[in-house]
From TrEMBL:
Gene Ontology molecular function, alphabetical: threonine aldolase activity
Matching InterPro entries: ArAA_b-elim_lyase/Thr_aldolase, Low_specificity_L-TA_bact, PyrdxlP-dep_Trfase, PyrdxlP-dep_Trfase_major, PyrdxlP-dep_Trfase_small
Reaction equations catalysed: L-allo-threonine = acetaldehyde + glycine; L-threonine = acetaldehyde + glycine
Organism field: Brytella acorum
Domain spans labelled Aromatic amino acid beta-eliminating lyase/threonine aldolase: 8-293
Oligomer status and interactors: Homotetramer.
Name of the molecule in the record: L-threonine aldolase
Keyword Lyase in record: yes
Annotated function: Catalyzes the cleavage of L-allo-threonine and L-threonine to glycine and acetaldehyde.
Amino acid sequence: MTMRQQYASDNYAAICPEAWEAMQEANVGSAVSYGMDDWTTRASDALRKAFECDADVYFVFNGTAANSLALASLCRSYQSILAADMAHIETDECGAPEFFSNGAKILTIPTEGGKLTAEAIRRMARMRTDIHFPRPAVVTITQPTETGLLYSLDEIRGISAVCRELGLKLHMDGARFVNALAALDCSPADMTWRAGVDVLCCGGTKGGMAVGEAVIFFDRTLSDGFDFRCKQAGQLASKMRFLAAPWVGVLRDGGWIAHARHANGAAQRLHEALKDVPHVRPVFPVQANALFLDMPSEMTAALRERGWVFYEFIGGAARFMFAWDADYAQVDRLARDIAECARDYRQDAR
Ligand SMILES: *Cc1c(COP(=O)(O)O)cnc(C)c1O
């Protein structure tokens, strides 16, 4: 049974062909378990090559684990994690970062649309230094943000400069890292370690895999014990080759980036198609694979009646999030339906 293509989330999408084919290639004979196999070595090497860096690479099942375990290794239990108020680690991980760090506190910084600034980080980090307050140890930024905004390379460099100045580590939640790569058209290295990022949680699932994220430590001194952390948290896959192989698949011919470009293109396409439609307003600039639309509740109800599925959990706007498989004809149908709902709304209002 298949449902019609929806854009409620990029994890509604199926597995992209490159990931699927690599899993099929890996699905032959025996392989050593727990990551000591050739596929895991190949995938780690492929990521090191893509990032032009001799990083430590780990594969875990999902983004919550990747973020939580990475952050736990960057701070102690009495320290704090500086994050945007809209950060996934704060709003959508059920306290996992606090849990896995044994109580480190997330300090949220108010933002317009989820983007931190160097200034705001400095202010928050310096606010208190007394013994009654959890000492800031790490800053996390989401690239692109939960709202589909991008940090420019300059902005990342500015944030990492403040982090270095204040002795903070810099973590990047890259659940949609590849969409940022495609949008900024820069190298993975430039967006991460060359800009001062210490650890990246690099999304696989939303980029087209069945399951799995890569945790990449550019500063290898920070990964001490991370393998044990993964095991303890139930994140060490015994048949690791199947978490690893998709990375080999998506990285070998640039399929990963191409798919992200396609997904970003769908967001742009819907955005363009709605430019002259009344009563619908994009809430955030469209920079990656997301489009957030503000419209009257009568219109969202009418859209749902037409069978469209979407969430409004971020700031009340209707979110449309596109994946590698976005069918542009279906995106056009959505645009048409939104335009028709706007027309009906106007007639009702008269
Ligand atoms: C989807 C997502 C994650 C990971 O979520 P899981 O469901 O745990 O895989 C992490 N960060 C952001 C910003 C996300 O959108």
